[in-house]
Structure formats: C-alpha cells, structure tokens
C-alpha cells in the first residue's frame, strides 16, 4: 500500500464547483458561485428557519445529492483530486452537513418529483404542514420542473402547481452530519486516503471491469467533461496506468448516467471514515463498491487484460473498449441483442421532424459497433479468446433483431435538404402516410412499406432541413422498393450498408472461420502461416524467401495496420528476429526501410503512400485499393474492410505490385 504525501491546501474558490463535481452533475453552466448557499437557503425554507423563497437558476438538478452525498465524500478522499477542487468538495460537504438534507430523520419526511407551476412567478409554498420548492427556473422536460417537499404536519403541504410525478428520497444512507464532518476533518488532517493498487485489482476481478475502469471507479470516477481531465500524469503513475488505458477506462465508465453514478457510490464508504486510512481500508472499500456494482450493473464476463489492450487500440469504435468486449464475450446479457427495440417514430424536439427514439438510437449504435469491431476481433485476437469466440452468437442475435418486420433504422439519406414529402411522393408509388408513430408527428410523412420519410422543420435561417429517411431492414431485399431505397441512400457509411454487410457472404465466411476453430489455441488469423499456409509456401517458392520473410511480406501486402508491435504479437517474434526478417525483405527489394508518421513500423512496400489521421490508418496507396479504402489527395478517407484473411492473403499475393 503506497501513501501520497499531504499537499498544502489551496484557498476555497466556488468558481471551480462544476469541475469539482464533474460526472456527478448536469448542466455545468448552472453550477457556480452561490450554489452552496442555495443548499442552505432551500433547507432553511423547507424547515421554516428561512423566510424568503430561495434563489433559483443555480445547481441544475442538485436534488440528486439528497441521500447520495457519499459519492462526493468518496471523491474528496481520493488522492488524485487537485487541491483547489478538493477544497470545493470539502466545502460542499461542510455545508451539506448543516442542512436538513443530511439528517436521515428529516429525509424520511421528504420526497421529490415533477410539478407544473401554476404561476411562473411563484416557485415555493409553505404552511404549518410543510413546504414545497421548485428547484430550478428551467423546465425538466414537457412535464414541468423538479421540486423538493418536506412534510412537517399531518396533511400534505400545498404545492405551487400541479404535481405530475413523485418519488421518495433515500432516507437511510451513509451521509449523516457526523460522518460528513468526520471525513472532512480526516482529509484536512491526514490528507487524501492512501492508494492501493491491489484493491483496484480486486474490484476489477469482482465486477468484470477493466483494470483501468476499476481503478477510476475506486477513485470516485474522475470525469473529463467540460474540458477538465480527471487524471494527470502523476495520478496515472500512482495507479499504474498508461494514458491510453486511462482514457479507455474513462470511456468505459462514461456510459453510467449521473443518477447511476450517485446511486452506485452513495453508501460505499465505511461507517467510520477513518477506516479508509488504515491497513486494508481500501480493499474493504473495493469490496463494498463491487457489491454495489453487482446490484446495479451485474457482473461483466471476464475479459483478459491483453484483449482489452487490443480493443483500446481501436479508438474509432463508438463504445468503450471494455463495453465492446463485454458485448461479444456474453451477447445474451446485452438487452439490445435479445429484445426488439421500440423504433416507432416520435417527434424530434430539435428539428420538429421524426426520429426513432432512444431505443432506436442505441440499437443503431450497437449495429455500427458490431460491424466495425468484427474485423479486428476476428483478425487480432487469438483462437480461444472469449471475445472472439462470441462473434457467431453476437452476429446471430443481431440478425434476429434486424429481421423484425417493424424495426426502423435511419438510412442516412443522400442530401435531400429542402425537399418535402410532397416533392418525394412521386418517387414512392403507392406510399401512404406513416401511421405507426408513437405520438402524433408535427410534419407530413410517407410510408411505402419499406421506406418511411418524415418531413423536417426549418433551421435558424428559415431553410427546410433534410427529411428523415428510414427503412425496415426486415423487409429489405431485391424488390423494386429496395432499389428505390438504394437510390436515395449513401452507398458508404450508411446503416443500409451496415445491414448489407452483416448479411453478406464475406461476413458469413468470417463467422464460419471462427466457428470452425481452424486455428491452433492461441494462434492468430493474421499469421498467414496458420490461416493461409499454401500461400506462404507459394510466396517462398516464387521469391526464394525463407518462410518467415514470406510471412512478413504477405502481412505488409494485406493487413491494413501491420505495425511492428502487432506483427510480433501475431507471429510470436522477438524484436531481434523481426528486425532480421525485415532486413531480408529490404535486401530482396520487396520492402523499403523508412520512418513515416503514424505508421508504427519500419518497413514498407515500395511505391506511393497515403497519410491517415486518428480514425483512418495511413497505408500504401496500392493497398488502399486492395482494401476498398478511399484516398483523396494522398490521404486515407475511409475505413478498410478486411473480410476473411485467407482470401485476402491470396488476393494480395495475386495482385501485388511488380
């Protein structure tokens, strides 16, 4: 167990409150100087000690901290927090301890919910039976605004409007006045609690989180919203995390909503806060967090750290690496794969047109993730890996969802800006208005059974937005309606293209290769000695190269990102052996030695080169043609689609540049 030295405290400055509470709050623009005073003002008004109605427009949705301030206390005790932010957290706990929100007996008579104000100028009411305060001047959706109520009599206190929803606040909980004061005193006296890497490892083991994700959870979920980075280089060093690992861990926990984070960490601290500073205190904390995680999130399947490291290399995937791995490792636990989503169109509050709702949006995200990830899961993970082994079942379940006749997907149509349903209707003979909406839509629609078009509203300049184009993949095939759809949808990067690929023969052959288990345990499909041995033999016989040099030559020809690190992993080569093999290729004139930006390797095929960026890898221009990559102005502008590697190695050898 390592201890972090106490740092000198910096003066408390409430302007840092949004950064200090990152990840535990929403609407950071409404968190600033004066927010802590609002806690006291509202508490005083509810209990009767304050006469005037409290101020508004500060601390968006701060009611979530009632019964859950233990999450802030955990972060305030963690070593990684910068001094000026820790002082804000401690100040908040000091203030909170003096409010009725920290008293379990008072909380037992509280509730929160949503109300519609009867008079916009009256947001608080109080009688001898209690008080009700609407907390913020902005609405909480169409149904009204959030309120907090405290009963002090036998009858229900009157509200400043119509209450449309209610829920209790946590009465029992860690955050009592004594515990809050005690923790603040200990942090100021002893400094932050010591960090224990072993405790983070236990948390990872018991939750299925990555090592980085577990470490960040144990540290109170450092957050990176609003331009503030939660971990600096010193903190990463103490935790034993590389920057890429820390970023992957941040993405892994980013899926947790604010309310989930607060509920998760509300009651994990020990009854006696001093236990955090004692031997074994962090381990006990990790065990309590693990239990809370299992109750809320369940246990993710165990994924090797080596697999998570490979996943983290693919930063273009839309989900956190650990979350992607969890989907493939245990697809039956992923609700989006096992339950048909409700994708009926509903009103888009931004454009005024239609959209397929939150369930549809999340399903589209999963579709894109699976289609993008299958290539590297298949090619870069070894035989026997649980993530790779789960590809066939993941694909099967996803195809089941796509077969549902009523599923709607956004098609990402070609530029139809300014077009109306009346303009488009002649191109969809027999189409009728769309009648299956979840709520009445604000604009005209058309529906030909396969394609649904929802007219959009106007932008700020008064110009009509492009209409929403949707399709039912379960009805997509080779008929005339499908050809009409293809005429208005982008060929690349569309959800229609993803559906075609998922159902296509190349995808099926990838699934078949994994199902067959044709590789030896621990072997990689990206090693042509295992996946295409006859091609390796032909290369060696034709060029006179040794088998290993022929192998590397094929990998340079075919693999989209043959970095030195990946080649050594696939082929199980030492750096010295790899260097010798590469030198043989250069000597034979089949490769050139060079250093190129973002390439991660030292040898290249002769010929032109196309640069890349964060999302698209650089590569030889010839190879871009082999992999179907679009190159514009000597720069890669699209993602390579690899397909079955035995076929790709053979095709690369047949069409190689001479």
- The proportion of residues in beta strands is 5-15%
Quaternary organization: single chain
| General form | globular
Overall SS class: alpha+beta
Sheet with most strands: 5 strands, antiparallel
Could you list the spans in which at least 5 consecutive residues all have pLDDT below 50? Answer: 1-10
Annotation, overall tally of beta strands: 15
Mean pLDDT across residues? 90
- Percent of residues in helices comes to 40-55%
Verbal overview:
The structure is a single chain. The chain is of the alpha+beta class and 658 residues long. Strands 2-3-4-1-5 form a 5-stranded antiparallel beta sheet, with helices on one face. The longest helix is centred in the middle third of the chain and has 24 residues, at 357-380.
Short overview:
Strand 6 and strand 7 (354-355) form a beta hairpin. With 658 residues, the chain is of the alpha+beta class.
Can you tag this structure with a few keywords?
5-stranded antiparallel beta sheet, 9% strand, 658 residues, disordered N terminus, 42% helix, alpha+beta, 4-stranded antiparallel beta sheet
Topology:
Layout: H1 17-20, H2 35-47, H3 70-76, H4 83-97, H5 104-107, E1 110-117, E2 124-127, E3 130-134, E4 145-151, E5 161-168, H6 177-190, H7 197-207, H8 211-218, H9 233-239, H10 243-254, H11 258-265, H12 281-297, H13 305-312, H14 321-329, H15 335-338, E6 346-347, E7 354-355, H16 357-380, H17 386-389, H18 391-402, E8 409-410, H19 421-424, E9 445-447, E10 451-454, E11 468-471, H20 480-488, H21 495-503, H22 505-516, H23 528-531, H24 533-543, H25 547-558, H26 564-571, H27 575-587, E12 592-593, E13 603-604, E14 609-610, E15 619-620, H28 621-626, H29 645-654
Antiparallel strand pairs: 1-4, 1-5, 2-3, 3-4, 6-7, 8-11, 9-10, 10-11, 12-13, 14-15
């Amino acid at each position: 167990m390592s201890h972090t030295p106490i740092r000198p405290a910096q003066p408390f400055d409430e302007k840092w409150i949004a950064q200090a509470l990152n990840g535990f709050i929403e609407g950071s623009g409404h968190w600033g100087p004066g927010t802590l005073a609002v806690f006291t003002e509202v508490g005083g008004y509810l209990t009767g000690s304050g006469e005037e109605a409290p101020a508004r427009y500060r601390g968006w949705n701060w009611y979530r901290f009632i019964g859950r301030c233990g999450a802030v206390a955990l972060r305030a005790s963690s070593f990684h927090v910068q001094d000026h932010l820790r002082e804000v957290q401690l100040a908040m706990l000091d203030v909170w301890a003096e409010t009725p929100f920290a008293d379990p007996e008072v909380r037992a008579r509280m509730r929160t919910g949503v109300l519609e104000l009867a008079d916009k100028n009256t947001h608080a009411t109080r009688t001898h039976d209690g008080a009700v305060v609407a907390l913020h001047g902005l609405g909480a959706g169409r149904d009204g605004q959030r309120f907090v109520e405290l009963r002090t009599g036998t009858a229900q206190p009157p509200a400043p409007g119509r209450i449309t929803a209610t829920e209790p606040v946590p009465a029992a909980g860690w955050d009592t006045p004594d515990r809050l004061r005690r923790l603040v005193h200990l942090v100021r006296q002893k400094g932050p609690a010591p960090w224990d890497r072993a405790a983070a490892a236990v948390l990872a083991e018991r939750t299925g989180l990555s090592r980085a994700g577990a470490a960040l959870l144990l540290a109170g979920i450092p957050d990176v919203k609003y331009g503030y980075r939660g971990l600096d280089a010193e903190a990463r060093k103490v935790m034993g995390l590389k920057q890429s690992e820390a970023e992957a861990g941040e993405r892994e926990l980013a899926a947790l909503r604010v309310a989930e984070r607060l509920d998760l960490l509300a009651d994990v601290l020990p009854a006696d806060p001093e236990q955090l500073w004692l031997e074994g205190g962090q381990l006990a904390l990790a065990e309590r967090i693990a239990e809370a995680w299992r109750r809320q999130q369940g246990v993710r399947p165990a994924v090797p750290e080596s697999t998570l490291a490979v996943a983290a290399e693919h930063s273009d995937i839309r989900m956190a690496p650990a979350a992607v791995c969890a989907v493939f490792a245990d697809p039956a636990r992923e609700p989006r794969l096992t339950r048909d989503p409700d994708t009926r169109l509903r009103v888009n509050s931004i454009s005024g047109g239609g959209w397929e709702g939150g369930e549809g949006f999340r399903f589209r995200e999963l579709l894109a993730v699976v289609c993008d990830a299958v290539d590297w899961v298949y090619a870069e993970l070894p035989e026997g890996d649980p993530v790779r082994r789960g590809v066939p079942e993941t694909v099967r379940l996803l195809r089941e969802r796509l077969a549902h006749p009523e599923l709607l997907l956004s098609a990402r149509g070609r530029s139809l800006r300014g077009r109306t349903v009346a303009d488009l209707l002649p191109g969809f003979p027999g189409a009728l208005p769309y009648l299956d909406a979840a709520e009445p839509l604000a604009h005209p629609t058309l529906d030909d059974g396969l394609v649904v078009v929802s007219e959009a509203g106007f932008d700020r300049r008064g110009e009509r937005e492009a209409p929403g184009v949707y399709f039912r993949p379960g009805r997509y095939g080779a008929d005339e309606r499908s050809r009409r759809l293809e005429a208005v949808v982008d060929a690349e990067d569309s959800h229609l293209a993803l559906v075609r690929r998922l159902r296509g023969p190349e995808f099926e052959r990838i699934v078949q290769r994994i199902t067959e288990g044709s590789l030896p345990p621990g072997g990689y499909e990206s090693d042509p000695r295992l996946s295409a041995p006859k091609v390796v033999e032909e290369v060696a016989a034709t060029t006179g190269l040794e088998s290993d040099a022929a192998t590397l030559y094929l990998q340079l020809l075919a693999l989209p990102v043959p970095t030195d690190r990946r080649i050594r992993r696939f082929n199980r080569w030492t750096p010295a052996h790899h260097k010798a093999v590469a030198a043989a290729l250069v000597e034979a004139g089949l490769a050139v030695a060079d250093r190129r930006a973002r390439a991660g390797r030292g040898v290249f095929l002769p010929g032109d080169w196309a640069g890349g960026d964060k999302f698209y890898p650089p590569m030889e221009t010839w190879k871009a043609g082999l992999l179907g990559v679009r190159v514009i102005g000597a720069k890669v502008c699209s993602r390579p689609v690899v397909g079955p590697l035995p076929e790709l190695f053979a095709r690369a050898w047949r069409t190689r540049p001479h």
